[in-house]
Automatic annotation (TrEMBL):
Coiled coil, from the record: 93-154
Organism expressing this protein natively: Paramecium primaurelia
Keyword annotations of the record: Coiled coil
Name by which UniProt lists this protein: Uncharacterized protein
């Protein structure tokens, strides 16, 4: 039985006689991957092993070790985010500047075509179409400039923010930027 992987004891009256049957079985059957309908996780095995060796005190020590390890991982993640955020913001700023330049070029081309149509006495509908297209592009340009300004402000503020604020705002920024880009397309 030491190689048993899955054990289902529900509706078994025997388990009622063991107060901490999950710990008991995990300590005695370390190869279990499922007990009842729940998977056995590595941290749970660590806690049960410590409990089996040192009792409740060992269990508490192991829980604290696991918490410390998780806190260390979170701190490392925060530091990595902190390192990557300036790069992320700079790449987004470049992206917006590139798109702004493209839209400005399109607007200039449309205005030049409009002037040609005016000089050639083209139909009013062609001129109106170019005006509407130019206005639409100008609206996109205004939105992109506003987003770019917001990104620059965020870039300036980033140095004064706490790490947790940076992590939260990064997700919010990505979502808002994606929504705006989807609207522009």
């Amino acid at each position: 039985m030491p190689k048993l992987k899955c054990l289902y004891l529900q509706r078994n009256n025997y388990i009622r006689s063991i107060q901490i049957y999950r710990k008991y079985y995990l300590a005695n059957l370390p190869e279990l991957t499922y007990l009842e309908t729940q998977p056995v996780f590595p941290n749970e095995l660590r806690i049960v092993d410590a409990w089996g060796k040192l009792g409740k005190e060992g269990e508490q020590i192991e829980r604290q070790k696991i918490k410390d390890e998780e806190d260390t991982k979170k701190q490392e993640y925060r530091e990595e985010i902190k390192k990557q955020l300036p790069i992320y913001l700079q790449s987004k700023i470049k992206f917006f500047q590139k798109n702004i330049n493209a839209i400005e070029t399109e607007i200039q081309e449309m205005q030049a075509r409009k002037q040609n149509h005016i000089v050639q006495n083209s139909q009013e509908i062609e001129i109106t179409f170019l005006d509407d297209s130019t206005n639409q592009k100008q609206s996109q340009l205004n939105e992109m400039n506003e987003l770019l300004d917001n990104m620059k402000v965020r870039q300036i503020r980033q140095n004064s923010m706490t790490e947790s604020q940076l992590i939260e705002q990064r997700g919010d920024q990505q979502e808002k930027i994606q929504i705006k880009l989807d609207e522009i397309d």
